[in-house]
Amino acid sequence: MTFSLAARDPRTGRFGLVVSSSSPAVAARCVNLRAGVGAVSSQNVTNPGLGSLALDLLEKGLAPDEVIAGLRDADEHIEYRQVTVLDAQGRSAVFNGEGTLGVHAFAQGPGAVAAGNMLADPGVPQAMVDGFLASTADEFEQRLLDGITAGLALGGEAGPVRSAGLSVIDDRPWRLTDLRVDDADAPLTELQRLLTLWLPQRDQYALRALHPDAAPSYGVPGDE
Fold first, then answer.
1. I want to staple 94 with a disulfide (CB 3.0 to 4.6 A). Which of 4, 26, 40, 106 is the partner?
2. Structural domain contains residue 220
């Protein structure tokens, strides 16, 4: 019920993950990022706890394939899961349990990994990776969105998608970008609208956290 793309930005070292699904609030369950460590998507019949466990294992120095082995040992229902793991070196690994739903597939590229289940076309993950790598957008977030949009153009999920999310983390312990569309008729279109609104303000909000005395005003009534 989900298709996702995780990537590492070679320009900045940031990690990002973008995801869409026919289920509501997909990003709340599937997106897992940790500064300097990696990105993990836990999807299909989702166990959200696998994301933080996978990041813990990455942080201990395990390679992505070893992380997958650790997850298999930790979850008695692992055959219902689909998991992608991307580490700080851009290496990736994927697990597709025997209970992964419908048409499912994955694709890996330099610093990127994509996977999906209940897909309209098995080529959707490769289209996401190719779309991300081919994007010439300046911003990492936009390149991620270009990638998943390429997957949607090939059919995306077999049914209509209803939710989407896009998150990016840099070297700070909070998410630099964290956008969600929990239910909408065209969630990726709405995600693009939110991203266009957010990007010009993104760095100002980071500045407010780090140097509030130097940050610009909010520009709203009462902030004088």
1. 106
2. no
Task: Provide the 8-state DSSP code for 221.
Answer: T
Is residue 224 situated within a structural domain? Answer: no
Asked whether 4 and 17 are in contact (CB, 8 A), the reply is yes
Picking from 2, 7, 53, the residue whose alpha carbon sits closest to that of residue 147 is 7
CB 74 within 8 Å of CB 56:
no
CA atoms within 13 A on the CB side of 151: 35
Q: How many Å apart are CA 53 and CA 59, to the nearest integer?
A: 10
Euclidean distance between CA atoms 19 and 188, whole angstroms: 9
Distance CA 53, CA 203 (A): 30
Residue 59: domain span:
2-214
| pLDDT tens per residue, range 174-199 | 999 999 999 999 999 999 999 999 99
Residues lower than pLDDT 50 in the chain: none
Question: What CATH code is carried by the domain that includes residue 197?
Answer: 3.60.20.10
Angle at 164 between CA 2 and CA 17, to 5 degrees: 80
Q: 223 lies in a domain?
A: no
